[in-house]
Amino acid sequence: MKAVFVLFDSLNRHVLAPYGGRRVPTPNFTRLAERAATFDRHYVGSLPCMPARRDLQTGRLDFLHRSWGPLEPFDNSFPELLHRAGFYSHLVTDHFHYFEDGGATYHTRYDSYDFIRGQEGDPWKAMVQPPWERLRQMYHERQFSQSARDKFRRNIVNREFIKDESAFPSVRCFSAGLEFLERNRTADNWLLQIETFDPHEPFTAPERFREAFRTGWNGPVRDWPRYGRVDELPEECEELRANYYAVMALCDFLVGQLLDYFDRHDLWRDTALVVTTDHGFLLGEHDFWAKNRMNMYEEIVHIPLFLRDPRRPGSAGTRRSALTQTIDLAPTFLDLFDVPAAAEIEGHSLLPLLDADRSLRQGALFGYFGGAINVTDGRYTYHRFPPDLRSQELYQYTLMPTHIWEPFTPEELAGASLAQPMSFTKGAPVLKIPVIERSPMFDNYGPGALLESETRLYDLADDPGQNTPLYSPEIEEAMTRLMRDLMRSNDAPPEAFARIGIEAQ
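Now predict its structure.
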């Protein structure tokens, strides 16, 4: 077996033509849907970036126990399990979070990896004294900084070295993936993961992709929205959205390059293909930009998935309605290579769904660490918040006490205790670390970051835009039972139930 896994970041499902999108032409995603099965009810698990990738690699939910951080010593990583079974895996990525403190153990699970530099705040190019007078005029004040370690400054410097289309990180990322295929396509027993940060903000695309989305904006570069409520003027909002659309067009072009290679060498006969994303991104819907700050709306959590198994060519061009989520990818990749899933994996292989569309699970649980617990059964979504996000009892369970950019502080660790092993830690006790307001994660992607905290129930059939919360004690009670059962099956700690006011039993 051979497999290619394409992972985008912040790829909005509803913008893609196979899911009804019309604003951006995406003919190559349409080509992909003709060759693969398209999953209509695929959801996230843990958010944002690295929590989603821990779900993806381990087949378990991250957010019930820990925020952003490395893989744990007891985690089952699907590329590591493939390696132990004699299969080769290679990662090509420009997702720089893998190479920070909070992602340091993910990329090393692959047999080899290729890191493409230059995305967003990647500390890539060294420029001690940039030409600030010129650069200040070029960039909008909300995406400008002179602070040495600030992501805006790093991005401004990086962009001084990314001019031609061939220099864009996502373009280089796919080129490196095609190079792997050119060198290895006649070999057997490998998995290639092509992972790009695009279309994640900043929404920077080569000039030719921007032409179709010109807004008449004459101001400084404006392609990086804040995480939070929309407060920009309409013309500024249009420019931000237009730049996202341009990067989506670039992503479609890159998918087309890969499909062309599959066509040229007839890889369809012996190579699996999986294409998805980690989460979506709000572009003004619900009066918000981005993620992390608001309720987990459909635009963020309902994501695209395309799956092609060469042994099941009859599934090409079909659609699947089964409720699936990110934790199902690890067991799916293992199943492609006939490697048994580890006992701790909670996800399900999706390959049987290619033979027949059927129910895989009753519900999907998802969330941010320290935020609401969220669940969907495919018809309803239920978002249950603690009464007070700032005063809730909350602990991180980890043996790798590291945030995105730095280890846990001594102040955080001062309150740590040793907790008994959990069902998935393979007999290892773990640190139980109280969450404090001075934690680096608290106001960035933790409980202090949220701008909405109202428990809500939505009916996606009658209200797909989630504009009006539904009041139904009977349905809320049923969704609460489903939430409790899924939390129990994922070994949620006792305080996870208490903080949202439901019984663990």
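The first strand starts at residue 2 and ends at 8.
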